[in-house]
Input
Amino acid sequence: MTADGTNARHSTPRVVADLGAVSVRRYTTGQVILDDINWTVRSGEHWALLGANGAGKTTVLRLIGALMHPTTGTVEVLGHRLGHVDLRELRSRIGLVSSAQKVPLDATAHTVVLTGHTGTVQPLWRKYDSEVRDRAHALLAELEIKELADRTYGVCSGGQRARVLVARALMADPSLLLLDEPFNALDLPSREDLIDAMHRLAVTRTGLATITVTHHLEELSPAVGHVMLLKEGRVLTSGPVADVLTGDRMTACFGRPIEVSRHEGRWLARSGRRR
Output
């Protein structure tokens, strides 16, 4: 039996996010940001969302994160259609990790994780009983940073902060975890620590679905099994990682020759000169 009480052998993974013919246009200029996006993410799947700057990756993540509505089309997240659900309540069930998130720099790492329980920037101390506090400690341990519990977030390294934010996102026990360029500005050891952490989560939290927006194939965990390539607001291709991450498809996506290789489950992209 799985954690949600279903029979894993015979059940089909449930849909956690579904975009149907979704388009987004900028109201002031009429500019098309997304055009006819169809995409389904199921429980336990780990997706990477790739594309050049301006391709629409962040907009897709904002739609699935219940942070905005589409101009046309339908967006369903965790069984609820946007426009027919309280977005604040829905957002409380979605984990989000972004280097742009605002958290109190003078708070301890444990306190930052606690704020994930209430979805607030500042802690709401009356909402945190002993069970909630223990859960925050357990998540720091799960991310292998329990020694940071009493360290001020502002003095943590970039890699430590990233893992603290993952722990914070997991406080809501989400079925869906969104990672918006979580590796931004990380050095090599910090990047590898975060990749290892995401791989462990995929192994231990089998029902958790993740979507990672990144610019670099080297940042993909071996657990990533699906990829969607976006180009100029449209889906260029999507599907199993080995089918999508080919030199030809990456070249078509980014508009310059790209060679793709794989070693022990990790990916590498290298661009040659235009001829």
Summary: The chain has a mean pLDDT of 91. Residues 188-204 form the longest helix (17 residues). DSSP finds eight helices and twelve strands in the chain.
